Amino acid sequence: MAEPIIDAIDVSKSYGDKLILDQVSMSVHQGDVVCLLGPSGAGKTTFLRCLNHLEQPSSGAVFLDGELLGYRRAKDNLVELSAVEVAKQRQRIGMVFQQFNLFPHMTVLENIIEAPTKVKGVSKSDATDRARELLDSVGLLEKLHERPERLSGGQQQRVAIVRALAMEPEVILFDEPTSALDPEFVGEVLDVMLSLANRGTTMVIVTHEIGFARKVSARAVFMDQGKVLEEGSVEDLTDNPQFERTRDFFGKVL
């Protein structure tokens, strides 16, 4: 099997005396769609943020294409990379947040081309052509020159997905991308994500949308109290859970 794009090994995270993640390991290969499921407070978002070094693990390691993320080895020690070096690694990992995080003073187009032009050095013309292509693919080309405040929540989240795609990342992380949306807008965002999955986009998704997870997920990981309790297909976890805690959770949400 090819080397994983992301390989998290025994990742733990503590805030003071509070243990949030407890030796979580997970590998993600090209084309994988992995859904992180479980109750609120299980550590799913914290783990996701460790995968692109927005959170620094207290112990353990994350590798990106075999390269240690956020650190380099110096003999027997780990030396933290500079912010510039981490940012360069992070270019390869897209991130879509709960709250969209679009720049309110910029148009849709400006939001999308900002990183490709400023970080990757793509010409404004090429970045604009790519932005138009991506916006067209999610049905928002006519919103090119609008400000985020004039868009619905679902439209803003679709723009946020396009912004991530514009950097041509190797993997995209989604942190509960529909949790801040009114119910009427959830479907349009999930449809875009389903399309990405069908095109082979590598994704790790924190979600409570179990029906959606059934459609897209090659693998589901159930977390509880900072640990991976079990993993398999979504059907395995929902229909034939191996642990009482898993059975109890899905019995309440399905």
Quick gist of this model?
The protein is α/β, with parallel strands linked by helices. Helices cover 36% and strands 26% of the residues.
Give the topology.
Blueprint: E1 6-15, E2 18-28, E3 33-37, H1 44-50, E4 59-64, E5 67-68, E6 71-74, E7 77-80, H2 83-90, E8 93-96, H3 108-118, H4 124-137, H5 153-165, E9 171-175, H6 183-198, E10 203-206, H7 210-216, E11 219-224, E12 227-232, H8 234-239, H9 244-253
Parallel strand pairs: 3-10, 3-11, 8-9, 9-10
Antiparallel strand pairs: 1-2, 1-4, 4-5, 6-7, 11-12
Describe the structure.
This protein is of the alpha/beta class. The protein has 9 helices and 12 strands. It has helices at residues 44-50, 83-90, 108-118, 124-137, 153-165, 183-198, 210-216, 234-239, 244-253; strands spanning 6-15, 18-28, 33-37, 59-64, 67-68, 71-74, 77-80, 93-96, 171-175, 203-206, 219-224, 227-232. The strands form 3 sheets. A 6-stranded mixed sheet has the order 8-9-10-3-11-12, sandwiched between helices. A 4-stranded antiparallel sheet has the order 2-1-4-5, with helices on one face. Strand 4 and strand 5 (67-68) form a beta hairpin. Helix 5 (153-165) runs parallel beside helix 6 (183-198).
